[in-house]
Design brief:
Elements: E1 12-13, E2 16-18, E3 23-28, H1 32-35, H2 50-63, E4 66-72, H3 80-83, E5 108-112, H4 123-130, E6 134-140, H5 142-155, E7 159-163, E8 167-168, H6 172-186, E9 189-191, E10 196-198, H7 201-213
Parallel strand pairs: 1-9, 2-10, 3-4, 3-6, 4-5, 6-7, 6-8, 7-9
Helix pairs in contact: 5-6
Length: 217
């Protein structure tokens, strides 16, 4: 039985400014099995988010944000394979992060065993060593690994930003319900990728000081 329900209003922010020195971009589970034709658990909309995520990677790399990739990782006997088809078997083609996003030197790849990238990993430890307090979280699946990672981050008091055009889900309901829940339950800021601006706190002050000192004014 299907029912029609209305999605309650949630704010989609027009502009979100972040300090790149305190921000990390987390790209969740963009692996062949979830993204590419021939994968075992393909999210049909995931491949279409590749260019958007590439633009976020360019922003992060160009402004000095930290970059983290999560890599769902399972092996023989993993209980997730009783709930889902077999996926992301370690060292298989499907397990690999899509070629478009080859992690660069200094970027962190977190092998995770559950939906939540903090569970049983050193992600929180590394983010705190980096002095990061703000996370831009994108990738797939919006209401599963993106959502549980975002929720887990928010419970640890990270400031969470979700660019909705850089996430994907199996059904529109799942995407909308996860975004609504993120905004409603842990004050996650939902936005579009192009609305995220990286701005050093110091540089804005420096610019205004120069303008004030200019003889033309
Ligand atoms: Zn999995």
């Amino acid at each position: 039985m299907s029912r029609t329900v209305e999605v309650p209003e949630y704010e989609v922010h027009g502009e979100v400014r972040v300090n790149p020195g305190r921000t990390a971009l987390i790209v969740v589970d963009m692996q062949n099995d979830f993204v590419k034709e021939g994968g075992t658990l393909v999210v049909p909309d995931a491949e279409g988010t590749i260019p958007t995520i590439q633009s976020l990677l360019a922003l992060a790399r160009g402004s000095g944000m930290k970059v983290v990739f999560t890599q769902d990782t399972h092996g023989q006997g993993d209980p997730e394979w009783t709930m889902w088809p077999e996926h992301v078997r370690e060292d298989s083609w499907g397990w690999r992060i899509v070629d478009e996003f080859a992690p660069q030197e200094g970027e962190l790849v977190i092998r995770k065993v559950r939906y939540d990238a903090f569970y049983g990993t050193h992600l929180d430890h590394i983010l705190r060593l980096w002095g990061v307090d703000t996370l831009i979280i994108c990738g797939t699946v919006a209401n599963i690994c993106v959502h549980y990672t975002a929720a887990s981050a928010a419970l640890r008091w990270y400031d969470v930003i979700i660019p909705k055009d850089a996430t994907s889900a199996l059904f529109p309901f799942d995407l909308e319900s996860s975004l609504r829940q993120s905004a409603f339950l842990f004050a996650g800021r939902i936005t579009e990728s192009g609305n995220i601006k990286a701005e050093e706190a110091g540089s804005a002050v420096f610019r205004s000081t120069i303008e004030e000192a200019s003889p033309d004014r």
